[in-house]
Amino acid sequence: MNIQLEEMKQNQECERRKRIAEEKHKEWVQKKREEERRERKRKVSKEMAEKATKELEKMQLQEKADVKYKEWLKKKRAEEVEKKKKEKEKEKEREAELQEKRTRSEKIFKEWLQNARNKPQPALNGYGFPHGKSTGLY
Question: Which first-to-last residue range defines the signal peptide (predicted)?
């Protein structure tokens, strides 16, 4: 009977240890799962933060590029306006020179016309050419 009692005690002790071991194992597994879940959450939040940072940097880069493009476009348009202004000035200058040349030419032509009226006319029947034409005979 003592032996049976002893065996029972040992069985009970063994079962108790098994139960405790199982409980500890369950706790360990639960703790491990909780830790893995927290680790996943941390990874996801870290990835989201990195993604947000990259997106922010990308947006800042885009804004910077837009500002530079607008400055370049403004500069280019100003250059274009300046170029057109210079071309207009050159055209006006050319037109003024042309007008001055015309007036000078007209003045010279009028002077020549005045002088041509006052010059004596050449003799028509000179040197054997009656009526200014050759007769074919000497």
Answer: none
Q: Rounded distance, CA 59 to CA 54, Å?
A: 9
Tell me the domain boundaries of the chain. 1-85
* Residue 68 to residue 46: CA distance in whole angstroms: 33
In DSSP notation, 66-87 reads HHHHHHHHHHHHHHHHHHHHHH
Q: What is the pLDDT of residues 12-44, one digit of tens each?
A: 999 999 999 999 999 999 999 999 999 999 999
Distances (CA, A) of 22 to 14, 27, 34, 35: 12, 8, 18, 19
Q: Give CA angle at 121 (115, 125), nearest 5°.
A: 165
Token pair, residue 130, equals 């009656």
Task: Say how far residue 70 (Cα) sits from the centre of its chain.
Answer: 8
What spatial distance separates the first Cα and last Cα of the chain, rounded to whole Å?
184
Radius of gyration of the chain (CA): 57
Tell me phi and psi for residue 130, to 5 degrees.
Answer: -65, 135
